[in-house]
Design brief:
461 residues; alpha+beta; five-stranded antiparallel beta sheet; four-stranded antiparallel beta sheet
């Protein structure tokens, strides 16, 4: 199925590499030379595409320029290299999990395999970072030996691998995040950074979690929003890709019952006004759907480690948490004034954390000076022109609900502004996190143990 597997750091260093078969015919070549070529390919994807589009010559004129501007972005997850192999990769926490294959394999299957390997690594190490992988490489190579045999997947479930793994994980303290939880009844986010097996610290001593392993399960509703605004702030297209994710430390695992909104409707035509409506939904294979149609209740025996109970998708009209209003004014032939206003339309008791706004600038930008008009309670804000990336980066540590933030940029160009230059501005990209808030109104009414078991006294924090 796959010829090799490797994990690369954000700098391109090979942290883990394992060869399963030699499909290149160059047994003398070192594995690292191929991973370096792969990293250069994805790192400089835009430059390589631009150079390839320019080979056709100058006869095509503006057509080549339009194509080169449209090809900006990250490398695709699947592509071929000059060595004749197809390389596939996923990115997790800045790390690159990749593999190569000379066979006609299903890319979706391989991408799912790489995602599963990353998830299992996280379950057994507690966190997923470069330092964690370097300190636990013996454990991770042992996991790879059990998960893959001659490049074919064998055992990929966390709980099934526990009987085959004998090394202990070395716990590395997770990097603290700036976003604080607003609900005091909610457990700390660092509580899920525990391995599913016995662990030791960097000094080789047993950790406190190994002596007092609690039977715990953590539940998260995660939603990813993709919203396209017009220049007037109107929504042109909007989708929500969400999931209910759990991480289980229950041993032995009892049968659980999870209840969703009683008025949850599936399909745009079946929903009523004010009810939570999703376009489509799919469930983990461990979920029993006997009572889902009648009571919107799921029953399942949770596997150990991290897993997704269900995925759902919402399209159409919903209240977006933020609105973006940009404006461009041409002050002089070579000077532009760009204003971006962000309005937080979430309730006052919520806030956006780790907000970043990226505004691509024209290639002929010489100088760009930025100023920010902040509302009280915003925290640290900063806006600057990043020349090497050709964009303005505006960061806000905290964006309270019901407030407005404005950024003004005075841009000086090296040549007079034209219609083509104005097209190079944007699109504006905004990333954010909103703790304890979801847009789709999907809720977990309760999570209970299906029937009484000896040794279990369930309670909430």
């Amino acid at each position: 199925m796959i010829s090799n597997f490797f994990v690369l750091s954000p700098r391109g260093d090979t942290i883990i590499a394992k060869q399963y078969r030699n499909d290149r015919g160059d047994a003398g070549a070192h594995e690292r030379s191929h991973t370096e070529a792969f990293f250069r390919k994805i790192k400089f994807w835009d430059d390589m595409n631009t150079s390839l589009s320019g080979v056709d010559g100058a006869a095509q004129g503006d057509k080549n320029e339009d194509e080169s501007t449209q090809k900006k972005g990250d490398a695709p997850p699947v592509f071929m290299m000059p060595d004749g192999l197809t390389y596939m990769h996923v990115k997790r926490n800045g790390l690159i999990f990749g593999c190569a294959s000379a066979r006609n394999v299903s890319p979706t299957t391989v991408i799912e395999l790489l995602s599963t390997i990353a998830r299992v690594f996280k379950d057994y190490c507690g966190t997923l970072s470069e330092e964690t992988i370097r300190k636990n490489f013996i454990l991770l190579y042992e996991l790879l030996d059990e998960m893959l045999d001659y490049g074919y997947p064998q055992i990929t479930r966390t709980q099934n691998l526990k009987s085959c793994v004998y090394n202990e994980s070395i716990v590395v303290d997770p990097i603290s995040t700036s976003g604080n939880m607003v609900n005091p009844k909610t457990a700390s986010a660092s509580a899920v950074h525990k391995p599913v097996i016995n662990s030791v610290n960097v000094n080789g001593r047993k950790t406190e979690s190994s002596h007092q392993q609690k039977n715990e399960i953590f539940v998260d509703i995660l939603e990813r929003l993709n919203v396209l605004f017009s220049n007037n702030g109107y929504v042109l297209n909007s989708t929500i890709d969400g999931c209910i994710q759990m991480k289980s430390y229950l041993t032995p695992a009892p049968e659980l019952r999870l209840a969703l909104n009683e008025d949850l409707a599936i399909g745009r035509s079946s929903g009523t006004y004010g009810s939570a409506t999703v376009d489509d939904i799919n469930f983990n294979d461990c979920v029993n759907l006997t009572e889902f149609e009648s009571a919107r209740t799921l029953s399942f025996v949770p596997p150990e480690g991290e897993f997704v109970v269900l995925n759902y998708r919402v399209t159409g009209d919903f209240t977006t948490p933020f609105r973006v209003f940009p404006s461009i004014e041409e002050v002089e032939p070579k000077k532009l004034e760009i204003t971006v206003l962000i309005r937080a339309e979430i309730p006052h008791n919520h806030f956006g954390a780790n907000v970043s706004v990226e505004i691509p600038m024209p290639k002929c930008t010489a100088v760009a000076s930025c100023s920010v008009i902040s509302s009280p309670g915003t925290g640290h804000t900063n806006a600057e022109f990043v020349r090497k990336d050709g964009k303005i980066l505006w960061t806000l540590k905290k964006l309270p609900g019901g407030t407005e933030q404005t950024m003004r940029a005075k841009v000086t160009l090296s040549q007079p502004c034209t219609t083509q230059i104005r097209r190079e501005i944007g699109p504006i990209n905004m990333n954010f996190e909103i703790p304890m808030y979801n847009v789709s109104n999907l809720q977990v009414r309760y999570l209970r143990i299906a029937e009484t078991m000896s040794g279990y006294t369930p309670y909430r924090w």
